[in-house]
């Protein structure tokens, strides 16, 4: 049976405004768990509560109520052990420009009280493909390299759980792919990954399970595959030859959209009819089909459906 490395029970955080006497519930009775070895996505629009949750884990925000257990340690009873079980990679690139990657990792290891004989600085630099830049100034590194160095910093104490907070924000496509290859390798080594991202396609490709937050509430928690199954609408685009824009198309259970004289869109509920029925209908109306593309929807559709954002 797979072990839970993070368990959240009835987690609530309320911010109080002493002037207005108003309360803002940033997190409301959250309940979920993260399993060992998985890539777990934590998604939500701005203000959903993701940052508050990560801040509670990191120790910079105190929860109002509820329990958090990390790697068998209770956050209230064993806060230091909880911190030692986590490696948190922040959104902001906060590196000392005049230190080399090797110096930064050695310093970070020292802050965690790791003796010199137990440090794995060279191995971590190799894992994030920075061994060739070990002695270069951090300021000379590219954006992607700096992101990888942040991951390396979070790994010096060999935590079983790595938290990535918007790791590819502002990173170009090539560097993003490179970064994810590094993350996949860490996951293969047994590191559990918790990921927040605004790139929904990224989450769809990377995550085993996804939790979606909205206004402090958990609105969905399931495998990526099952979340995608929630989309009931199938969309099709037909590339046609010189369609007469005055022609009206009407078929039970189908919503047609005339995009141009060469593109016709159609949408219908999955499993409500046979795809060939639509093709036969278009053929009967003397519409010559040159190409067909289908869209079963993606995580973005699920996200919009659940959060209305």
What is the tally of beta strands? 14
Q: Helical residue percent?
A: 25-40%
List the helices and strands in order. EEEHEEHEHHHEHEHEEHEEEHEH
Strand order of the largest sheet: 6-7-8-3-9-10
What is the mean pLDDT? 88
CATH fold-level name of the largest domain: Rossmann fold
Provide the gyration radius in Å: 25 Å
Task: Explain what this protein looks like in three dimensions.
With 309 residues, the chain is α/β, with parallel strands linked by helices. The chain has 3 domains: 1-85 and 159-229, Rossmann fold (3-Layer(aba) Sandwich); 93-157, no CATH class; 232-297, Alpha-Beta Plaits. Helix content is 30%, strand content 30%. It has 10 helices and 14 strands. It has helices spanning 50-58, 79-84, 101-111, 121-127, 143-154, 173-188, 200-206, 224-229, 275-284, 299-307; strands at residues 4-16, 23-35, 39-43, 65-70, 73-74, 86-89, 161-165, 192-196, 209-214, 217-223, 233-240, 255-258, 263-269, 289-295. The strands form 3 sheets. The protein has a 6-stranded mixed β-sheet with strand order 6-7-8-3-9-10, sandwiched between helices. A 4-stranded antiparallel β-sheet has the order 2-1-4-5. A hairpin with a 4-residue loop joins strand 12 (255-258) and strand 13 (263-269). Helix 5 runs parallel beside helix 6 (173-188). The longest helix has 16 residues, at 173-188. The chain is globular, with a radius of gyration of 25 Å. The two termini are 37 Å apart. The mean pLDDT is 88.
């Amino acid at each position: 049976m797979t072990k839970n490395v993070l368990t959240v029970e009835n987690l609530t955080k309320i911010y109080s405004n002493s002037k207005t006497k108003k309360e803002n519930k940033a997190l409301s009775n959250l309940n979920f768990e993260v399993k060992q070895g998985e890539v777990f996505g934590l998604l939500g629009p701005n203000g959903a509560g993701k940052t508050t949750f990560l801040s509670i884990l990191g120790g910079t925000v105190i929860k109002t109520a509820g329990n958090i257990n990390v790697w068998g340690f209770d956050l209230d009873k064993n806060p230091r052990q909880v911190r030692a079980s986590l490696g948190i990679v922040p959104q902001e690139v906060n590196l000392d420009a005049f230190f080399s990657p090797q110096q930064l990792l050695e310093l970070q290891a020292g802050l965690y009280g790791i003796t010199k004989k137990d440090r794995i600085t060279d191995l971590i630099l190799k894992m994030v493909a920075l061994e060739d830049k070990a002695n270069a100034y951090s300021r000379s590194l590219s954006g992607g390299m700096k992101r990888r160095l942040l991951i390396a910093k979070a790994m010096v104490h060999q935590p079983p759980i790595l938290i990535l907070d918007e790791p590819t924000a502002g990173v170009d496509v090539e560097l993003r792919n490179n970064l994810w290859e590094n993350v996949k390798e860490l996951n293969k080594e047994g590191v559990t990954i918790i990921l927040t991202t605004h790139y929904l396609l990224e989450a769809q490709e990377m995550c085993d399970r996804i939790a979606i937050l909205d206004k402090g509430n958990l609105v969905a928690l399931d495998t990526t595959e099952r979340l995608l199954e929630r989309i009931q609408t199938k969309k099709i685009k037909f590339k046609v030859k010189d369609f007469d824009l005055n022609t009206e198309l009407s078929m039970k259970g189908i919503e047609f959209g005339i995009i141009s004289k060469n593109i016709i869109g159609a949408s219908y509920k999955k499993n409500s009819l046979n795809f060939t029925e639509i093709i036969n209908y278009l053929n009967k109306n003397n519409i010559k089909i040159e190409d067909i593309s289908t869209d079963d929807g993606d995580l973005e559709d699920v996200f919009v459906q659940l959060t209305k954002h």
